[in-house]
Amino acid sequence: MAHALHFSISLSPPPPPFLSKRLSSKPYACSARSPISSVHSVSPVSENGLPLSKAPAPVVLQPTTVDSGVMHVDVAMEVELRENGPRSSRRTKLVCTIGPATCGLDELEALAAGGMNVARLNMCHGTREWHRTVIERVRWLNQVKGFSVSIMMDTEGSEVHMGDLGGLTSAKAEDGDIWTFSVRAFNSHRPECTISVNYDGFAEDVKVGDELLVDGGMVRFEVIDKIGPDVKCRCTDSGLLLPRANLTFWRNGSLVQARNAMLPTISSKDWLDIDFGIAEGVDFIAVSFVKSAEVIKQLKSYIAGRSCESDVAVIAKIESFGSLKNLKEIIQASDGAMVARGDLGAQIPLEEVPSIQEKIIRLCRQLNKPVIVASQLLKSMIEYPTPTRAEVADVSEAVKQQADGLMLSGESAMGQYPEKALAVLRSVSLRIERWWREEKHNDNMELPDIASTSLESVSEEICHAATKMANKLEADALFVYTRTGHMASLLSRCRPDCPVFAFTPRPSSQRRLNLHWGLIPFCLSFTNDMESNLDKSFSLLKARGMIKSGDLIISVSDMLQSVQVVKVP
Predict the structure, then answer these.
(1) Whole-angstrom Cα distance, residue 218 to residue 162?
(2) How far is CA 525 from CA 448, 480, 561, in A?
(3) Distance between CA 279 and CA 248 in Å, rounded?
(4) Cα dist. 198→150, 160, 259 in Å?
(5) What residues contact residue 289 under an 8 Å CB cut-off, 6+ apart?
């Protein structure tokens, strides 16, 4: 019997606090650029700089949190299921970095409608108040518009990096230009072609003849002179300088690691940002330049101590030589990993990056940890409306390697075409996934036992069996009823041909599952009676056009150790 959907009606609600805020113009301002997509028209703008069309309507329908008949799923995914069916849905998750080009309500909604699963906040830029406003806007879209976008906070880390560019969003360095890198604190006007560096020992440690790589080698300099706290450098490879870009140093063909080893993984600023993220209830905290598993363990213990009910997942960013030396231990300790190829490519030979990427993806899957491939996926789309064919091939390879997620950085934060870049990731993911299934590629990856108890071992075997059964019978979907999300992650690890509908009663678990390959998370209350759960799910899903009568479903749960095969009535 289908349960009726009930809604609470609020007449003329007061506008959310963030609708009366203008995001600070310094140091990280929202662009007034109108969305690219023709679906979204340019809206009139109010005095506070936000589009008037995005203010709450006089009557807002919101599902209540106590009604057992309510089922919440991301509205963009619901549309995809309704139009294309479960088996044609996208499996690869998409992460978008939010910046000046996409922090407005219109732009955020366009990204959410375009398939953004996770919104990333880069704490290298912007104030905490700026990030808080973006968080409020994402939550408003989730609550009022029906999306289910998760929020990831990415710490700055304490590696050597440039400072701000005196208010500029970027600066062009040309071949032969002389630039000064200085540890001085510029309280007044910054001299032309001068960049501040955050590491006090920079001028002492660097030597004439050293090669300086900016942002993973996007711009290169040669050190030609040292004058007190100032280091004179000649540009040898031109490019765009961006605020707070990372700096790496090479001497006689080898990476200079000593200075980075002296810096803590989590800086004092990072700890304040982490406190902010916990207080704001972000879903993921990504830790930059992780060198050991102890850092991850310390952070997870700290999060648990700050909030016993916190469900924040910790993502380890693999972006340094030190990360690779302790790779397995770091991934085991974390809740997921990010292959940050830009900085990683500045610390290891470029030709090794592809094999390292594949190694990390395989290891994460074996250890049942979601993994994101990041950095320079569609870098040319910061300036141009179409990607290079090489970039499309790069994205395709990450999809074929079955990474859980793909991430846009500058493309969505400050690029001219963020919605188009997201559309490229979505369309390439869908096409390569379909090709993979049509060609019936065999997944030969061996998945080792990771269970620590006999009960967990049974769950692993059930998920393996359910996946094999679903593939053999060409099921339309796998259903999993899970309170913690663990059994859903085990199914994702098996990479079945059909999508996994993951039902969980906790909104935080639903958002956390957003990062796992092939999972479509639903927030739905359920009981220990599987027949009742299935009847309820079928009724709600059929009423909203996400499944149809005759669809073949394989069902498992973390309450009953069994596999059920059933056709939708």
Answers:
(1) 14
(2) 32, 13, 19
(3) 33
(4) 31, 6, 12
(5) 157, 158, 159, 260, 265, 317, 319, 320, 322, 323, 343
Q: Residue with structure tokens 């002389």?
A: 178
3-state secondary structure of 382: helix
Q: Where are the alpha helices (DSSP H) in 307-352?
A: 321-325, 327-333, 341-344
In DSSP terms, 182 is beta-bridged to 196, 230
DSSP 8-class letter at 380: G
Contact 563, 555 (CB under 8 A): yes
Residues 292/264, Cβ–Cβ less than 8 Å: no
3-state secondary structure of 392: helix
- Tokens for 297? 């363990």
Distance between CA 132 and CA 130 in Å, rounded? Answer: 5
Q: How far apart are CA 248 and CA 255, in angstroms?
A: 8
253 φ/ψ sector (left φ>0, alpha ψ -120 to 50, else beta)? left
Helix (H, G, I), strand (E, B) or coil at 247: strand
Backbone angle region of 400, left / alpha / beta, with phi > 0 → left and psi within -120 to 50 → alpha: alpha
Q: Note the pLDDT tens digit of each residue in 501-538.
A: 999 999 999 999 999 999 999 999 999 999 999 999 99
Instruction: With H, G, I as helix, E, B as strand and everything else as coil, classify residue 47.
Output: coil
Separation CA 224–CA 139 (nearest Å): 50
What does the DSSP 8-state code read for residue 33? P
Provide φ and ψ at 24, rounded to 5°. Answer: -55, 135
The structure tokens listed for 438 are 């049509």
Look up tokens 């810096």; give the residue.
Answer: 263
C-alpha distances (whole Å) from 30 to each of 204, 232, 328, 337, 349 are 38, 34, 39, 29, 37
Please name each of the domains of the chain with its CATH number: 90-158+265-438 (3.20.20.60), 171-262 (2.40.33.10), 454-496+499-567 (3.40.1380.20)
Give the C-alpha separation, 514 to 356, whole Å: 25
Contact 293, 330 (CB under 8 A): yes
- Give the integer Cα–Cα distance in Å for 391 and 140: 34
Secondary structure percentages of the chain, helix, strand, coil, to 5 = 35, 20, 40
DSSP designation for 437: H
Q: What is the pLDDT of residues 97-145, one digit of tens each?
A: 999 999 999 999 999 999 999 999 999 888 999 999 999 999 999 999 9
For 56-72, the pLDDT digits (tens) are 333 333 333 435 678 99
pTM for the model: 0.85
Query: Which amino acid does the sequence have at 367?
Result: L
Burial class (CB within 10 angstroms; exposed 0-12, middle 13-18, buried 19+) of 170: middle
Q: Are 321 and 285 in contact (CB under 8 A)?
A: no
Neighbours of 349 (CB within 10 A): 9
What would the 3-class secondary structure string for 205-242 be? HCCCCCEEEECCCCEEEEEEEEECCEEEEEEEECEEEC
